[in-house]
Amino acid sequence: xxxxxxxxxxxxxxxxxxxxxxxxxxxxxxxxxxxxxxxxxxxxxxxxxxxxxxxxxxxxxxxxxxxxxxxxxxxxxxxxxxxxxxxxxxxxxxxxxxxxxxxxxxxxxxxxxxxxxxxxxxxxxxxxxxxxxxxxxxxxxx
Length: 142
Hints:
It contains five helices and five strands, in the order αββααβαββα. It is an alpha/beta fold.
């Protein structure tokens, strides 16, 4: 999570919402990304989505079974869908997202009967620092 938090800081410095994501397999980092939606003019360029794409390329497969995702903010519905489709084993996230989160808040995608894969979810890892980064970033925008 420390690396995800460092990437969130880089994202904030670049004018992006401060979110970082890291995918790990057997203790080895496969991918580490930050939000890049503004930079790439791409609304799908969330840290989780970019990390998933990079990890899939590293593995050369369409699945990430046995891998864990560390992300500084609770994943949204789009990212939760990608997590389910790629079969990530476990998701660790920092701050809850009461507005757009889709794991423990909002639609709670993994609890839906139509969700075909339910990763283990551990929320609150690095929550204090994740929340601080988000509050500081959005306070500067106001």
